[in-house]
Specification:
By secondary structure, the chain is of the alpha+beta class. The protein has 2 helices and 5 strands, in the order βαββαββ.
């Protein structure tokens, strides 16, 4: 499985996004930018077309969640429809300026490795 760390990436751009005014000082962000010569964002899109029961999975609808798949922990973020009414809104923003998501200070960073990925659900 190719991870984002395996690819030639550029940092995500700062500045306002649909979900807010942009990065804030003293906060921690997971980010991923896309370079002109890199893999297209479509390479990373998977549409399971199924409802996700957030409460049953123990996911918070705000902020990042950690899940374990196999021996690897991944960051999961629920993309809110109030800021991104359509999945394409998030995808096109990511294509244009990259992905930058705030991570809670209480996140268990020691569980993240080079094999960890960011997973987004709406």
């Amino acid at each position: 499985m190719t991870t984002l760390l395996d690819l030639a990436l550029t940092p995500a751009q700062g500045g306002p996004r649909e979900c807010g005014p942009g990065r804030q000082a003293s906060h921690i962000y997971a980010e991923c930018g896309f370079s002109a010569g890199g893999a297209p964002i479509e390479q990373f899109l998977i549409d399971y077309s199924m409802a996700v029961d957030l409460a049953r999975m123990g996911f918070s609808t705000q902020g990042m969640n950690l899940i374990k798949r196999g021996d690897v922990y991944h960051l999961v973020d629920i993309i809110g429809a109030e800021h991104y009414p359509h999945v394409a809104d998030f995808v096109e923003e990511a294509r244009a300026i990259g992905i930058s998501r705030k991570i809670p200070r209480t996140a268990e960073f020691s569980k993240l490795t080079a094999q960890s990925t960011m997973i987004f659900s709406s």
